[in-house]
């Protein structure tokens, strides 16, 4: 059966198409909207700006993986593997997003923050009595460091294989977090 695409998905596909030929920082909302046959007003009904769309594209996929982790269907190591594969399966787009978005709206900051917030909220829900400020601090440090390393690796500044990167990231879990990130 043919599935009808949502407006968000159309806008996402439009940005993907444009990002193949143009730096993301040079793409305008008008171009994104015109490329998929909607108005700028329609774009703004769904997203605040193009950075909001860029982040939605990754977060949509991120939440699918993290939801499986929340249901305890997959391990943390598997989460890391799947998230790295999301980036690898769409290299042109995500490299463009990492290289050409800056400041508080940058893809790097948004993806790191979204992962961190989601994980902290899940663990607070699972372990309300155990998740103190120090554990939350450790989670923030781990996810921030992991985001930095994965970004450097992804932009070809490290020579690890996916398997090595996932293993190193799993081994780098601080001792105090191992009981939470299984």
TrEMBL record:
<dbReference type="InterPro" id="IPR009057">
    <property type="entry name" value="Homeodomain-like_sf"/>
</dbReference>
<dbReference type="Pfam" id="PF14278">
    <property type="entry name" value="TetR_C_8"/>
</dbReference>
<dbReference type="InterPro" id="IPR001647">
    <property type="entry name" value="HTH_TetR"/>
</dbReference>
<keyword id="KW-0238">DNA-binding</keyword>
<dbReference type="GO" id="GO:0003677">
    <property type="term" value="F:DNA binding"/>
</dbReference>
<dbReference type="InterPro" id="IPR039532">
    <property type="entry name" value="TetR_C_Firmicutes"/>
</dbReference>
<dbReference type="InterPro" id="IPR050624">
    <property type="entry name" value="HTH-type_Tx_Regulator"/>
</dbReference>
<protein>
    <submittedName>
        <fullName>Transcriptional regulator, TetR family</fullName>
    </submittedName>
</protein>
<dbReference type="Pfam" id="PF00440">
    <property type="entry name" value="TetR_N"/>
</dbReference>
<feature type="DNA-binding region" description="H-T-H motif">
    <location>
        <begin position="28"/>
        <end position="47"/>
    </location>
</feature>
<feature type="domain" description="HTH tetR-type">
    <location>
        <begin position="5"/>
        <end position="65"/>
    </location>
</feature>
<dbReference type="InterPro" id="IPR023772">
    <property type="entry name" value="DNA-bd_HTH_TetR-type_CS"/>
</dbReference>
């Amino acid at each position: 059966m043919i599935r009808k695409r949502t407006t968000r998905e159309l806008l996402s596909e439009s940005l993907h198409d444009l990002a193949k030929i143009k730096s993301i920082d040079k793409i305008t909302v008008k171009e994104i909207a015109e490329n998929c046959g909607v108005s700028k007003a329609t774009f703004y009904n769904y997203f605040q700006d193009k950075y909001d769309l860029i982040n939605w594209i990754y977060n949509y996929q991120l939440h699918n993986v993290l939801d499986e982790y929340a249901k305890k269907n997959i391990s943390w190591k598997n989460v890391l593997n799947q998230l790295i594969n999301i980036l690898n399966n769409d290299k042109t787009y995500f490299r463009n997003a990492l290289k050409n978005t800056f400041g508080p709206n940058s893809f790097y900051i948004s993806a790191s923050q979204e992962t961190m917030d989601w994980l902290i909220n899940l663990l607070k829900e699972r372990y309300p009595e155990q998740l103190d400020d120090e554990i939350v601090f450790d989670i923030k440090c781990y996810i921030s460091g992991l985001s930095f390393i994965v970004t450097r690796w992804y932009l070809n500044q490290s020579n690890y294989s996916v398997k090595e990167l996932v293993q190193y990231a799993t081994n780098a879990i601080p001792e105090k977090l191992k009981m939470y990130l299984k």
